[in-house]
TrEMBL record:
<keyword id="KW-0436">Ligase</keyword>
<dbReference type="GO" id="GO:0015420">
    <property type="term" value="F:ABC-type vitamin B12 transporter activity"/>
</dbReference>
<feature type="transmembrane region" description="Helical">
    <location>
        <begin position="149"/>
        <end position="168"/>
    </location>
</feature>
<keyword id="KW-1133">Transmembrane helix</keyword>
<dbReference type="GO" id="GO:0048472">
    <property type="term" value="F:threonine-phosphate decarboxylase activity"/>
</dbReference>
<keyword id="KW-0472">Membrane</keyword>
<feature type="transmembrane region" description="Helical">
    <location>
        <begin position="75"/>
        <end position="94"/>
    </location>
</feature>
<keyword id="KW-0169">Cobalamin biosynthesis</keyword>
<keyword id="KW-0812">Transmembrane</keyword>
<dbReference type="InterPro" id="IPR004485">
    <property type="entry name" value="Cobalamin_biosynth_CobD/CbiB"/>
</dbReference>
<comment type="similarity">
    <text>Belongs to the CobD/CbiB family.</text>
</comment>
<comment type="pathway">
    <text>Cofactor biosynthesis; adenosylcobalamin biosynthesis.</text>
</comment>
<dbReference type="GO" id="GO:0016874">
    <property type="term" value="F:ligase activity"/>
</dbReference>
<dbReference type="Pfam" id="PF03186">
    <property type="entry name" value="CobD_Cbib"/>
</dbReference>
<feature type="transmembrane region" description="Helical">
    <location>
        <begin position="49"/>
        <end position="68"/>
    </location>
</feature>
<dbReference type="GO" id="GO:0005886">
    <property type="term" value="C:plasma membrane"/>
</dbReference>
<comment type="function">
    <text>Converts cobyric acid to cobinamide by the addition of aminopropanol on the F carboxylic group.</text>
</comment>
Amino acid sequence: MTFLSILFALLIEQLKPLRADNPVYTWVKHFSLMVEGWFNAGHARHGRLGWFCVMLALMVPTALIYWVCMHIGAWAAFIWNVVIVYLTLGFRHYSHNFTSIQLALNTGDDAQARTLLAEWTKQDTSDMDVGEISRIAVEKALITTHRNVFGVFFWFLMPLGPACAVMYRVAEYLARAWNEPDHMRNEEFGRFATQAFYWIDWIPARLTAAAFAVVGNFEDAIFAWRNFADRWKSETDGIILSAGGGAMGILLGTPDKSASAFLPIDAATVDSTGIETDSPPGDLPTPRALQSTVGLVWRALLLWMFLLLLFSVGVWLG
């Protein structure tokens, strides 16, 4: 039933993508703002209490409804699973941005590509050239795909599947909402949300990186993962981007720009063959890299679905 739930949710999303400003997401945002207003007194422990308040308020009803559906019948649980996966997945949330940037670059409209990228990433793109636009778009797509698709898959496979999927997406949102806005930067309140999502995402991030390696250039992906992942300020982002870039043969991250949060290179790295190298393997990104990213993501998705199918068949036969 798990495999069919994900499959049906993916098909529905392809036919009817869920808008980012849908009522469910809007309510969650308003609720998290209310909790922030209730609990934020400038201390880390208040952020911890607020985080658990949000999680309990969303996970408990999800789990209770799932329990009731299980007692009604398998068909009811299946419908509830499809609804939750559809709400928590975001495979098409960003695709129109990525596709629009790709089309603009392919037609030579660099100005339009900069504008679209700025709207998507909330960065200043006025001085970016085509290579940098391509790189930032690829990096954003890989991270967004992981957090909106593969991370959700992993937690949906846990015993309380729907509730765990909700936990993952809400934890990812709180880690951003309670840390990224200007009025929340460097505040103690959002520290626990960041730490909690780091541990919640610890296994899914590595599984995503492994999937990229399997469906791409395995040797370069593993080499980049082992030797260059720690050069990003975010360990999780470093693992996904280094493996994804290596899998596609694309050089992601840059030593002198902050757009990708890639740390400066201070010393050369010695690989397993004894050869010194100060950058990950791969070529500089071009507009063709965006098409490579689409292929990598779809192959990784098919790999996840195939493994999930094998797991489901094994459970059914067992």
